[in-house]
Write a structure and sequence with these properties.
single chain, alpha/beta, Rossmann fold, 3 domains, 58% helix, elongated
Length: 308
Protein backbone atom coordinates (compact mmCIF):
# COMPACT_ATOMS: atom_id res chain seq x y z
CA UNK A 1 0.00 0.00 0.00
CA UNK A 2 1.23 3.49 -0.87
CA UNK A 3 -0.56 5.98 1.37
CA UNK A 4 -2.27 8.92 -0.32
CA UNK A 5 -0.68 8.43 -3.76
CA UNK A 6 -3.49 6.73 -5.66
CA UNK A 7 -4.02 9.68 -8.00
CA UNK A 8 -0.37 9.92 -9.07
CA UNK A 9 -0.06 6.17 -9.50
CA UNK A 10 -3.22 5.92 -11.60
CA UNK A 11 -2.03 8.72 -13.91
CA UNK A 12 1.37 7.08 -14.47
CA UNK A 13 -0.12 3.59 -14.91
CA UNK A 14 -2.47 4.97 -17.59
CA UNK A 15 0.56 6.44 -19.38
CA UNK A 16 2.33 3.07 -19.25
CA UNK A 17 -0.71 1.20 -20.54
CA UNK A 18 -1.12 3.68 -23.40
CA UNK A 19 2.61 3.63 -24.13
CA UNK A 20 2.82 7.38 -23.44
CA UNK A 21 5.17 7.42 -20.46
CA UNK A 22 7.96 9.97 -20.97
CA UNK A 23 11.58 8.85 -20.77
CA UNK A 24 12.56 10.99 -17.76
CA UNK A 25 10.44 11.52 -14.63
CA UNK A 26 11.07 13.41 -11.40
CA UNK A 27 9.30 12.53 -8.17
CA UNK A 28 9.64 15.47 -5.77
CA UNK A 29 8.20 16.21 -2.36
CA UNK A 30 8.86 15.82 1.34
CA UNK A 31 10.71 12.81 2.69
CA UNK A 32 8.67 9.80 3.63
CA UNK A 33 5.56 10.46 1.52
CA UNK A 34 6.09 7.32 -0.60
CA UNK A 35 8.11 8.60 -3.59
CA UNK A 36 10.60 5.71 -3.62
CA UNK A 37 7.94 3.10 -2.99
CA UNK A 38 5.87 4.43 -5.89
CA UNK A 39 8.93 4.63 -8.18
CA UNK A 40 9.78 0.97 -7.52
CA UNK A 41 6.13 0.02 -8.07
CA UNK A 42 6.12 1.88 -11.40
CA UNK A 43 9.40 0.24 -12.46
CA UNK A 44 7.90 -3.16 -11.70
CA UNK A 45 4.80 -2.28 -13.73
CA UNK A 46 6.95 -1.23 -16.72
CA UNK A 47 9.27 -4.23 -16.66
CA UNK A 48 7.32 -7.22 -15.44
CA UNK A 49 4.70 -8.90 -17.62
CA UNK A 50 5.12 -12.36 -16.09
CA UNK A 51 5.46 -14.00 -12.70
CA UNK A 52 9.01 -15.03 -13.56
CA UNK A 53 10.08 -11.43 -14.25
CA UNK A 54 8.40 -10.30 -11.02
CA UNK A 55 10.48 -12.84 -9.09
CA UNK A 56 13.69 -11.58 -10.75
CA UNK A 57 12.71 -7.98 -10.04
CA UNK A 58 11.91 -8.62 -6.37
CA UNK A 59 15.17 -10.54 -5.98
CA UNK A 60 17.12 -7.64 -7.50
CA UNK A 61 18.44 -9.80 -10.33
CA UNK A 62 16.45 -8.47 -13.29
CA UNK A 63 19.16 -7.19 -15.69
CA UNK A 64 16.80 -4.59 -17.19
CA UNK A 65 16.54 -2.69 -13.88
CA UNK A 66 19.16 -0.45 -12.27
CA UNK A 67 18.76 1.20 -8.87
CA UNK A 68 21.19 3.96 -7.87
CA UNK A 69 21.57 5.19 -4.29
CA UNK A 70 24.51 6.54 -2.28
CA UNK A 71 24.85 7.62 1.33
CA UNK A 72 26.55 10.94 0.57
CA UNK A 73 27.49 11.89 -3.02
CA UNK A 74 26.51 10.27 -6.31
CA UNK A 75 29.60 10.66 -8.47
CA UNK A 76 30.31 10.40 -12.18
CA UNK A 77 31.20 6.71 -12.02
CA UNK A 78 27.59 5.84 -11.11
CA UNK A 79 26.35 7.85 -14.12
CA UNK A 80 28.86 5.99 -16.30
CA UNK A 81 27.22 2.82 -14.99
CA UNK A 82 23.88 4.19 -16.24
CA UNK A 83 25.42 4.96 -19.65
CA UNK A 84 26.78 1.42 -19.93
CA UNK A 85 23.42 0.02 -18.80
CA UNK A 86 21.49 2.06 -21.36
CA UNK A 87 23.82 1.14 -24.23
CA UNK A 88 22.60 -2.48 -24.18
CA UNK A 89 19.10 -3.41 -25.33
CA UNK A 90 16.71 -5.01 -22.83
CA UNK A 91 17.31 -8.71 -22.22
CA UNK A 92 13.95 -9.81 -20.77
CA UNK A 93 11.56 -6.86 -20.98
CA UNK A 94 10.66 -4.42 -23.71
CA UNK A 95 12.03 -1.58 -21.58
CA UNK A 96 14.80 -0.71 -19.17
CA UNK A 97 14.38 1.38 -16.01
CA UNK A 98 16.86 3.39 -13.95
CA UNK A 99 15.85 4.77 -10.55
CA UNK A 100 18.12 7.38 -8.92
CA UNK A 101 17.10 7.85 -5.29
CA UNK A 102 18.07 11.14 -3.62
CA UNK A 103 19.00 12.57 -7.01
CA UNK A 104 20.03 15.85 -5.31
CA UNK A 105 23.17 13.97 -4.20
CA UNK A 106 24.40 13.91 -7.80
CA UNK A 107 27.38 16.27 -7.93
CA UNK A 108 27.57 18.85 -10.72
CA UNK A 109 29.82 16.71 -12.94
CA UNK A 110 27.51 13.73 -12.54
CA UNK A 111 24.44 15.85 -13.30
CA UNK A 112 25.99 17.21 -16.49
CA UNK A 113 26.90 13.71 -17.62
CA UNK A 114 23.42 12.46 -16.75
CA UNK A 115 21.91 15.33 -18.78
CA UNK A 116 23.65 14.10 -21.92
CA UNK A 117 22.31 10.59 -21.24
CA UNK A 118 18.79 11.96 -20.80
CA UNK A 119 19.04 13.95 -24.02
CA UNK A 120 20.21 10.92 -25.99
CA UNK A 121 18.18 8.26 -24.18
CA UNK A 122 17.13 5.26 -26.31
CA UNK A 123 13.40 4.69 -26.69
CA UNK A 124 13.50 1.67 -24.41
CA UNK A 125 14.93 3.60 -21.42
CA UNK A 126 13.02 5.26 -18.57
CA UNK A 127 14.85 7.25 -15.89
CA UNK A 128 13.08 8.06 -12.61
CA UNK A 129 14.69 10.66 -10.34
CA UNK A 130 13.59 10.93 -6.70
CA UNK A 131 14.35 13.90 -4.46
CA UNK A 132 13.07 16.00 -1.58
CA UNK A 133 15.50 18.80 -2.54
CA UNK A 134 14.82 19.58 -6.23
CA UNK A 135 16.46 23.02 -5.85
CA UNK A 136 19.84 21.23 -5.88
CA UNK A 137 19.23 19.85 -9.36
CA UNK A 138 20.51 21.81 -12.37
CA UNK A 139 17.90 23.80 -14.29
CA UNK A 140 18.93 21.86 -17.39
CA UNK A 141 18.04 18.60 -15.63
CA UNK A 142 14.70 19.99 -14.46
CA UNK A 143 13.90 21.10 -18.00
CA UNK A 144 14.29 17.51 -19.27
CA UNK A 145 11.88 15.80 -16.86
CA UNK A 146 8.17 15.61 -16.20
CA UNK A 147 7.81 16.38 -12.52
CA UNK A 148 5.28 14.78 -10.20
CA UNK A 149 4.99 16.74 -6.96
CA UNK A 150 3.90 14.73 -3.93
CA UNK A 151 1.66 16.38 -1.37
CA UNK A 152 1.91 15.63 2.37
CA UNK A 153 -0.24 12.72 3.53
CA UNK A 154 -3.28 13.58 5.65
CA UNK A 155 -2.54 13.22 9.38
CA UNK A 156 -5.60 11.05 9.97
CA UNK A 157 -4.48 8.61 7.26
CA UNK A 158 -1.05 8.45 8.87
CA UNK A 159 -2.51 7.96 12.36
CA UNK A 160 -4.76 5.07 11.30
CA UNK A 161 -1.87 3.27 9.57
CA UNK A 162 0.69 3.50 12.37
CA UNK A 163 1.62 0.46 14.46
CA UNK A 164 -1.29 -0.03 16.86
CA UNK A 165 0.93 -1.73 19.44
CA UNK A 166 1.84 1.83 20.49
CA UNK A 167 -0.72 3.70 22.58
CA UNK A 168 -3.12 6.14 20.92
CA UNK A 169 -1.56 9.25 22.48
CA UNK A 170 1.89 8.38 21.12
CA UNK A 171 0.45 7.61 17.66
CA UNK A 172 -1.49 10.89 17.66
CA UNK A 173 1.68 12.78 18.57
CA UNK A 174 3.68 11.05 15.83
CA UNK A 175 1.03 11.82 13.20
CA UNK A 176 0.73 15.39 14.45
CA UNK A 177 4.45 16.10 14.00
CA UNK A 178 4.85 14.07 10.82
CA UNK A 179 4.57 17.02 8.37
CA UNK A 180 2.54 14.66 6.22
CA UNK A 181 5.30 12.04 6.05
CA UNK A 182 4.55 8.47 7.08
CA UNK A 183 8.29 7.80 7.32
CA UNK A 184 8.78 10.67 9.79
CA UNK A 185 5.72 9.58 11.81
CA UNK A 186 7.09 6.04 12.04
CA UNK A 187 10.52 7.33 13.14
CA UNK A 188 8.94 9.55 15.82
CA UNK A 189 6.81 6.66 17.01
CA UNK A 190 9.71 4.21 17.29
CA UNK A 191 12.60 6.50 18.28
CA UNK A 192 12.50 8.36 21.59
CA UNK A 193 15.43 10.56 20.50
CA UNK A 194 13.53 11.65 17.40
CA UNK A 195 10.65 12.74 19.62
CA UNK A 196 13.00 14.69 21.88
CA UNK A 197 14.49 16.43 18.81
CA UNK A 198 11.06 17.85 18.00
CA UNK A 199 11.00 19.72 21.29
CA UNK A 200 14.48 21.24 20.96
CA UNK A 201 13.06 24.63 19.82
CA UNK A 202 11.40 24.95 23.24
CA UNK A 203 14.82 24.71 24.90
CA UNK A 204 16.65 26.74 22.24
CA UNK A 205 14.31 29.74 22.38
CA UNK A 206 14.04 29.52 26.17
CA UNK A 207 17.84 29.84 26.31
CA UNK A 208 17.67 32.69 23.79
CA UNK A 209 15.15 34.79 25.74
CA UNK A 210 17.10 34.16 28.95
CA UNK A 211 20.25 35.34 27.13
CA UNK A 212 21.92 32.07 28.16
CA UNK A 213 24.55 32.13 25.43
CA UNK A 214 26.37 29.00 26.64
CA UNK A 215 23.19 26.87 26.75
CA UNK A 216 21.99 28.20 23.39
CA UNK A 217 25.12 27.32 21.43
CA UNK A 218 25.65 24.09 23.32
CA UNK A 219 22.24 22.97 22.02
CA UNK A 220 23.05 24.10 18.47
CA UNK A 221 26.46 22.42 18.45
CA UNK A 222 25.08 19.14 19.82
CA UNK A 223 22.22 18.90 17.35
CA UNK A 224 23.63 19.87 13.95
CA UNK A 225 26.02 17.02 13.15
CA UNK A 226 24.76 16.70 9.57
CA UNK A 227 23.13 18.99 7.03
CA UNK A 228 19.98 16.84 7.18
CA UNK A 229 19.82 17.26 10.96
CA UNK A 230 20.44 21.02 10.63
CA UNK A 231 17.58 21.36 8.14
CA UNK A 232 15.30 19.34 10.41
CA UNK A 233 16.17 21.62 13.33
CA UNK A 234 15.43 24.68 11.20
CA UNK A 235 12.04 23.24 10.26
CA UNK A 236 11.21 22.55 13.92
CA UNK A 237 12.31 26.07 14.92
CA UNK A 238 10.09 27.57 12.23
CA UNK A 239 7.11 25.67 13.62
CA UNK A 240 7.89 26.96 17.11
CA UNK A 241 8.20 30.61 15.97
CA UNK A 242 4.95 30.43 14.00
CA UNK A 243 3.23 28.98 17.04
CA UNK A 244 4.44 31.91 19.15
CA UNK A 245 2.67 34.21 16.67
CA UNK A 246 -0.69 32.39 16.70
CA UNK A 247 -3.08 31.80 19.58
CA UNK A 248 -4.89 28.75 18.24
CA UNK A 249 -4.27 25.67 16.07
CA UNK A 250 -0.65 25.62 17.16
CA UNK A 251 1.60 22.66 16.41
CA UNK A 252 3.13 22.78 19.88
CA UNK A 253 -0.26 23.18 21.59
CA UNK A 254 0.97 21.08 24.52
CA UNK A 255 3.43 23.89 25.39
CA UNK A 256 1.10 26.86 25.00
CA UNK A 257 2.25 28.29 28.34
CA UNK A 258 5.89 28.42 27.21
CA UNK A 259 4.89 29.79 23.81
CA UNK A 260 2.97 32.60 25.51
CA UNK A 261 5.97 33.39 27.70
CA UNK A 262 8.17 33.67 24.60
CA UNK A 263 5.53 35.84 22.93
CA UNK A 264 5.82 38.36 25.76
CA UNK A 265 9.59 38.53 25.36
CA UNK A 266 9.90 38.56 21.55
CA UNK A 267 7.93 41.17 19.61
CA UNK A 268 6.25 40.39 16.27
CA UNK A 269 8.81 42.26 14.17
CA UNK A 270 11.65 40.28 15.76
CA UNK A 271 9.75 37.01 15.23
CA UNK A 272 9.41 37.81 11.53
CA UNK A 273 13.13 38.63 11.34
CA UNK A 274 13.93 35.29 13.01
CA UNK A 275 11.82 33.44 10.44
CA UNK A 276 13.68 35.24 7.64
CA UNK A 277 17.01 34.26 9.21
CA UNK A 278 15.94 30.62 9.34
CA UNK A 279 14.80 30.77 5.71
CA UNK A 280 18.18 32.20 4.69
CA UNK A 281 19.93 29.49 6.70
CA UNK A 282 17.92 26.80 4.93
CA UNK A 283 18.82 28.21 1.51
CA UNK A 284 22.52 28.36 2.44
CA UNK A 285 22.58 24.76 3.66
CA UNK A 286 20.77 23.64 0.50
CA UNK A 287 23.52 25.44 -1.41
CA UNK A 288 26.01 23.01 0.18
CA UNK A 289 27.33 25.24 2.98
CA UNK A 290 28.13 23.51 6.27
CA UNK A 291 24.95 23.14 8.34
CA UNK A 292 26.54 23.57 11.77
CA UNK A 293 28.40 26.74 10.72
CA UNK A 294 25.27 28.19 9.10
CA UNK A 295 23.17 27.55 12.23
CA UNK A 296 25.76 29.09 14.55
CA UNK A 297 25.80 32.19 12.35
CA UNK A 298 21.99 32.29 12.23
CA UNK A 299 21.49 32.04 15.99
CA UNK A 300 24.36 34.46 16.66
CA UNK A 301 22.36 37.07 14.74
CA UNK A 302 19.23 36.20 16.74
CA UNK A 303 21.16 36.48 20.00
CA UNK A 304 22.53 39.88 19.04
CA UNK A 305 19.06 41.09 18.08
CA UNK A 306 17.57 39.97 21.39
CA UNK A 307 20.53 41.30 23.36
CA UNK A 308 20.59 44.58 21.48
Amino acid sequence: MILGLDEQKEEIVRSIENNRLVSSILFSGAEGVGKKKLAVSIAKKILCNSEYLEKLFCAGTLPDYLYIEEEKIIKVDRVEEIISFSSIKPMYSDKKVVIINDAHKLNEYAQNKLLKTMEEAPLFLHIILITHRPSLLLDTILSRVVEYGFKPIDREIIFHNLDKSFDEKRRRLAAHFSSGSFKIAKEILEDEEKLKFLFLPRDIFSALVRLDEFKLFDLIMANSDSDEQSLELINNCRMWLRDIMVDSNSTYFMHRDILDTHKKLIDDETLVNFLHLLEEASIRINSSLNGKAVLINCFSKMFLEING
